[in-house]
């Protein structure tokens, strides 16, 4: 008998529901996510020889459980949270939500959808994604720290103009500040600490950029040969795309990157609107790439000007460039994949 094991995974527990192909519940159980619990999870699942595991959010909160199952030789598919939510809302339970109901919903979603992505063991793409996400975190911290520093400086040296990234200027101005009262003294001390934080973040970013460049070089990608893509953007793209062969066409890839417009037609009126769906990290990377191209004499700039001449607004023309670049990135990644599979001569 073929079964699907739906998994609702959390940080400290995972609840499973074993379903047959008629969606009947054969077994339910909750396990801790520690070493013993994960071992027992696999042991219980092996009671059904013909099984498939369905993990909600296998690339997010369900990743530790999903990767443990893959390492144990199990077949695992990734169930997007929105599919499981839709099943739960349309069920006879009137949207009742608990771990048992969620596990059942995940299993039903897997049974009803035969195009779910399989979960593979973590690869070099995971390393690149971790590095790209870490850089984003550090950049956000640096921006927040810099904003706090400028707020302090507005009190300590009113009227002085400090550029956004001029840490040296801020340091020089602070040396001239005299602490005449307790509040000013506290502000100056905090400003000095913020400067130290900025220096630490800058060193961390420089070190991370070196590691990212080395990791991208190890991937042997040709993405960095495209205008507007350096090691940082290449790491983000490779890390978030993963296996390019999971996309059947450039159109499917564009839908994933959020660069494919959504039809919003009605009656005789045919129109399209901007897609807010897709992977926003990839969309952001393509946006940066597009801005780089339209500012320099490139094929992207020529295409952008052609769209402007056709009567499109600058924003609409930029969207067209992003879609064209999405197709270019797809072809490049696919060519890299085929080149890596080709036997060496």
Report on this structure.
- It is a single chain.
- The chain is α/β, with parallel strands linked by helices and 345 residues long.
- It has twelve helices and seven strands.
- Strands 3-2-1-4-5 form a five-stranded mixed beta sheet. Strands 6-7 form a two-stranded antiparallel sheet.
- Helix 7 crosses helix 8, helix 9 packs across helix 12 and helix 11 packs antiparallel against helix 12.
- It starts with a strand and ends with a helix.
- The model has no long low-confidence stretch (mean pLDDT 90).
Q: Which structural class do you get from the secondary structure elements?
A: alpha/beta
Give helix and strand order, one letter per element, not per position: EEEHEHEHHHHHHHEEHHH
Q: How would you write the strand order of the largest sheet?
A: 3-2-1-4-5
- Globally, the shape reads globular
| Beta-strand residue percentage | 5-15%
The residue fraction in helices comes out at 55-70%
Tell me the radius of gyration.
Answer: 26 Å
pLDDT < 50 runs, ≥5 residues: none
Helix segment tally: 12
Query: What's the average pLDDT?
Result: 90
Number of strands: 7
- N-end to C-end Cα span: 47 Å
Summarize this, please?
With 345 residues, this protein is α/β, with parallel strands linked by helices. It contains 12 helices and 7 strands. Helices cover 57% and strands 11% of the residues.
Characteristics:
five-stranded mixed beta sheet; alpha/beta; 12 helices; 57% helix; 345 residues; globular; 11% strand
Topology:
Elements: E1 2-9, E2 13-20, E3 25-32, H1 35-45, E4 50-56, H2 63-71, E5 76-79, H3 81-89, H4 99-112, H5 124-156, H6 167-175, H7 182-219, H8 231-241, H9 250-257, E6 262-263, E7 272-273, H10 280-294, H11 299-309, H12 314-341
Parallel strand pairs: 1-4, 4-5
Antiparallel strand pairs: 1-2, 2-3, 6-7
